[in-house]
TrEMBL record, chain A:
MF terms (GO), sorted A to Z: phenylacetyl-CoA 1,2-epoxidase activity
Matching InterPro entries: Aromatic_CoA_ox/epox (IPR052703), Ferritin-like (IPR012347), Ferritin-like_SF (IPR009078), PaaA (IPR011881), PaaA_PaaC (IPR007814)
Alphabetical list of SUPFAM superfamilies matching this protein: Ferritin-like
PANTHER family, alphabetized: 1,2-PHENYLACETYL-COA EPOXIDASE, SUBUNIT A (PTHR30458:SF2), PHENYLACETIC ACID DEGRADATION PROTEIN PAA (PTHR30458)
Transmembrane segments annotated in the record for this chain: none
Domain of life from the UniProt record: Bacteria
Naturally occurring in which organism (per UniProt): Marinobacterium lacunae
GO BP, sorted A to Z: phenylacetate catabolic process
Name this polypeptide is given: Phenylacetate-CoA oxygenase, PaaG subunit
Database matches in Pfam families: PaaA_PaaC
GO cellular component annotations of the record: cytosol
UniProtKB/TrEMBL annotation, chain B:
Superkingdom of the organism of origin: Bacteria
Protein's UniProt name: Phenylacetate-CoA oxygenase, PaaH subunit
InterPro entries found in the cross-reference section: PaaB, PaaB_sf
Pfam families membership: PaaB
Length: 330, 93
């Protein structure tokens, strides 16, 4: 999802009998749905896994602003511009809520951001695709934020208190993102020219498969899932989340009067779910490895933002120090 | 930015209610913490008042103290109104 391949460093689950008394008390708390709070004892692996997952999630929110910012100065009217601006500001806020949650685990924000910039830590593969048309602002809100919501709604029940509370706050804001995106598309499909309608379909064609990849590899290819599920950091498997997303999205797609580029997609009455075709996993791993259409550009812009903002941070620190001196003298 | 002070943010959502902890921000000083808190935690009129407090100024009880601190009140049921059973004739009290 926003954190797609989080390594727990654990090869096999321990049984309760194999655990130390501390570990056992910890696991029993988790099993009883009691939230873990910052000052509570926790296994190193739990702490490390959470730092990885929350930092990836935070980086995704921050990098996720980049494809959309491209359209701020190109929005078709002032109302749409204000809406997009508000949506993008929310994403920045989500990144900050998550960095704060990560800091309660003892991680340092600057260090984690440096790891993003050096390529050591990833963000969601979806943000390595370009936003080529105005319709993409609709599709991103509808499909990308839509997929994120499916994941984040479940994460509200994650076992770590600060992460769970950040998710609750984020989920409250997300539905605005998805609705504004869907409304952009609906407006184009109902009132647009043939060219504009074709633009919507083209946008969905480009984003459909990358949106499904957001949920990460098949369960059978997710060696870290078992431990993350036992710790209740993760609460639902990649494949189950993906299925849930598809099931709730297809009726919305039909209302738009559009299609997805998957000949195998069809309702399966027996399963009560949509069947769908196989994802091109080589594309997914390629993008994760850094070879997507925009990977280099995204990181370049992030680094540039930090570098060019240095003087502002230095000026703020100098001003604060001066004020402090002044107050002490007075 | 990690060298800036960490502030805890408390927001009063409505007149007459308590301030409630909502999260934290980094800032060079208290005035900047206030601005950051406003941008981050009250974008949708979530509040009518904000407090920012340096995190280092907060003394928190530790989880190991949970029993000595809170257990003693567990067996004092007579501190709750429901402990006192009264005849129906008394009505609502
Ligand atoms: Fe977000
Ligand atoms: Fe998002
Ligand atoms: Fe969003």
């Amino acid at each position: 999802m926003y954190a797609q391949l989080v390594d727990t460093g654990v090869k096999r689950l321990k049984t309760l009998e194999e655990m130390s008394p501390e570990e056992r008390a910890f696991q029993e708390k988790i099993d009883a749905e009691i939230k873990i709070e910052p000052k509570n004892w926790m296994p190193d692996g739990y702490r490390r896994t959470l730092i990885r997952q929350i930092s990836q999630h935070a980086h995704s929110e921050i990098v996720g602003m980049l494809p959309e910012k491209n359209w701020l100065t190109r929005a078709p009217n002032f109302k749409r511009k204000l809406q997009l601006l508000a949506k993008i500001q929310d994403e920045g806020g989500h990144g900050l809520y998550l960095y704060s949650a990560m800091e309660t685990l003892g991680a340092d924000r600057d260090e984690e951001v440096a790891k993003l910039h050096s390529g050591e830590v990833k963000y969601s593969s979806i943000f390595n695709y370009p936003a080529l048309s105005w319709a993409d602002m609709g599709t991103i809100g509808w499909l990308v934020d839509g997929a994120a919501i499916v994941n984040q709604v479940v994460l509200q029940r994650t076992s770590y208190g600060p992460y769970s509370r950040a998710m609750i706050r984020i989920c409250k804001e997300e539905s605005f993102h998805q609705r504004q995106g869907y409304q952009i598309l609906l407006h184009m499909m109902r009132n647009g020219t043939d060219e504009q309608k074709a633009m919507v379909q083209d946008s969905i064609n480009r984003f459909w498969w990358p949106a499904l990849m957001m949920f990460g590899p098949h369960d059978s290819d997710s060696p870290n899932s078992a431990q993350s599920m036992a710790w209740k950091i993760k609460r639902m498997s990649n494949d189950d989340l993906r299925q849930r997303f598809i099931d709730q999205t297809i009726p919305q797609l039909e209302l738009l009067g559009c299609t997805v580029p998957d000949p195998d997609l069809k309702w399966n009455a027996e399963r009560g779910h949509y069947d769908f075709g196989e994802i091109d996993w080589s594309e997914f791993y390629d993008v994760v490895k850094g070879n997507g259409p925009c990977n280099r550009d995204r990181l370049r812009i992030r680094r540039k933002a930090i570098e060019e903002g240095t003087w502002v941070r230095e000026a703020a620190s100098a001003y604060a120090a001066k004020q402090k001196q002044k107050n002490a003298a007075a | 930015m990690s060298d800036w002070t960490l502030f805890e943010v408390f927001v009063r959502s409505k007149h007459g209610l308590n301030h409630k902890h909502v999260g934290s921000v980094h800032a060079a000083d208290a005035a900047m913490a206030m601005e950051n808190a406003r941008e981050l935690y009250t974008r949708r009129s979530e509040g009518v008042s904000i407090w920012v407090v340096p995190s280092a100024a907060i003394t928190a009880s530790s989880p190991d103290e949970k029993e000595p601190l809170f257990d003693p009140s567990d067996d004092k049921v007579y501190r709750h109104a429901t402990f006192y059973e009264l005849p129906k004739e008394v009505g609502h009290m």
